[in-house]
Amino acid sequence: MTDTTHGTIESHSLEVESYPPSAEFTAQANLNDPAVYWQAAQDPEAYWAGRARELKWTKPFEEVLDWSNPPFAKWFADGELNVTANCLDRHVAAGLGDRVAFYFEGEPGDTRTITYGELTHEVKQAANMLTALGVTAGDRVAIYMPMIPETIVAMLAVARLGAAHSVVFGGFSAESLRARIDDARAELVITADGGYRKGRVSALKPTVDDALALAGDGQPLSVEKVLVVKRAGNDIEMQEGRDLWWHDEVASYDGEHTAVGFPAENPLFILYTSGTTGKPKGILHTSGGYLTQAAATHRDVFDLKPETDVYWCTADIGWVTGHSYVVYGPLANGATQVIYEGTPDTPDWGRWWSLIEKYKISILYTAPTAIRACMKVGRQVPEKYDLSAIRVLGSVGEPINPEAWRWYHEVIGGGRAPIVDTWWQTETGAIMIAPLPGLTRLKPGSAQVPQPGIDVNVVDDQGGRVDRGQGGLLTIRRPWPSMVRTIWGDDARFIDTYWAKFGDQYFAGDGARVDEDGDVWLLGRVDDVMNVSGHRLSTAEIESALVEHNAVAEAAVVGADDETTGQAVVAFVILKSQQTLLSEEEAEAALKKHVASAIGAIARPRQVFVVNELPKTRSGKIMRRLLKDAAEGKEIGDTTTLADTSVMQTISQRMRAER
Ligand code: WT7
């Protein structure tokens, strides 16, 4: 990466480049009184109770936080609400039925404009259809879809019934999909024939067929029905008795459906994310607290004006950003959004900017990896478009390097739009650390300030706060409304992963430092989790996919710095001695493909190196730190603890030969 600023920056506030909010922006901002921070800090529970009361409750809560059984938090537990009614019916009842909820743009150029009234009608019909298919409160429904309106309709229909969805990103393999279906014991899968990506049809239904035909986890297959949305028109097989066409079914259902309230702690969704071991973790989010924080942060951090803004978050619904900042936060706030099905380079790199011009998008939320990719193509592309409606820019997924920040600010934001760098995680459910655009003096590369009512710390190994100017581990001490409630079906792993290290603080897995002003600079993961294009991948999961291949004896995977994707997967493998079928080059190509088909294209290694040995300590632990140095072309770190100190020499010679 070109960035060298974060982590090494001298924490002297005067030396750090910073951008104060303009007087005009502050004057019109939703939040422009810094008192909000200390007011919330005085009594965080009262603060969050106030934010929760911005929602519509069918039964008001009395109890705010129940932390009597840590780390299992309950928020607003005696209250009841319907999440979907908060996102839809409430706005229609307020006379906003004609407001546009979504401008949808398909990759081939087809468009749809959907108002809140229309979306509500579609969700009600879908809820009636799901009820007829047997979905009730407490069930799980898997969703494996492209980025189209029906995906959102499906999620909201599931939530309306008090059932939980488990959205699986459409880029995941049949094996990954099946593992998630089995873990959640989903009874229904909602999918599409295919979607459009990079100018081609990318099939989805055949992957569902493959997933359901796999052996699975040994228990009887939980899935009874598969609903298929017709999107791309590609040829697919429909299994009699199991598979149903969404549009054929839904048309026969009534558009009236009364939403009932469910307890605030009713599960809303499970979303799987990679951890340090091979098995993905099913992050469980519930209803009232989650919706409260998703909506509040969406309004505050993006300075949303639902009446006039056009908001676009480029994240796919398959990730938590799509859940919190395409579906739940923005819809709870009655926002008007753009959703786009495809990739930024189709038919050419002007596509995103043409959407901003066409829909007069005023708030754009995207990831540093996308910004860097656009930077590489050059500013002459966005400069051809009218981006003058942009007034707030957001960033998420990894630290944004100052060079990308400045480009984003200048070229996309016209030098006027503030950039909010938002730190959060699948587990936190909603934004935790970010500037407030009307209040914060922005520093490129830093997420800066915990949100009002959020208690973030940077601590040493013993859990004590580090001094300003120092680095440490990021923790969260006080429970927050949208926090993960557990790992689905595995309370022990939940405790072990996030709470065992410090006992009374949530350990995020990120390194961070606080500067002299108290601003937080994120420094990346401190565990065996990689961040590739803003997506989390587990070292262990890719290693276990590699050793499943019959040519591989041993494998080690590292996340190496990459100019565009932040980190990239680099694998080192030892082939089985008896395997003679593949040359080294063939093995390297075959293994890249193998990982992509075992986990998904996002996990495909940038490089695979066949080596004779891996660097190990005397106790047999692979020293990935040294492999990471080698993969980044750096001076190899301390090798004195290696069992065989010559291994790294051989590997780095090999790597140099490749360059
Ligand atoms: C990890 C969480 C939150 C939605 C996208 C990713 C990294 C995320 C930032 C940021 C520095 C960031 C962290 C975190 N991360 N946003 N603004 N600055 N790092 O969600 O897949 O759950 O990954 O992404 O390392 O732990 P996720």
UniProtKB/TrEMBL annotation:
Record's keyword terms, sorted: Acetylation, ATP-binding, Ligase, Magnesium, Metal-binding, Nucleotide-binding
Family stated for the protein in its record: Belongs to the ATP-dependent AMP-binding enzyme family.
Binding positions for Mg(2+) per the UniProt entry: V547, H549, V552
Catalytic activity reported: acetate + ATP + CoA = acetyl-CoA + AMP + diphosphate
PTM field: Acetylated. Deacetylation by the SIR2-homolog deacetylase activates the enzyme.
Gene Ontology CC: one annotated term: cytosol
Domain AMP-dependent synthetase/ligase span(s) in chain numbering: 91-480
Cofactor: Mg(2+)
The name this protein goes by in its record: Acetyl-coenzyme A synthetase
Domain Acetyl-coenzyme A synthetase N-terminal: 35-87
Any one GO BP annotation for this protein: acetyl-CoA biosynthetic process from acetate
Domain of life of the native organism: Bacteria
Gene assigned in the entry: acsA_1
Positions bound to ATP: G397, E398, P399, D421, T422, W423, W424, Q425, T426, D510, R525, R536
Domain AMP-binding enzyme C-terminal as annotated: residue spans: 541-621
In-chain residues carrying the UniProt-annotated modification N6-acetyllysine: K621
Binding site for CoA: R197, K198, G199, R200, T321, S533
EC number assigned by the record: 6.2.1.1
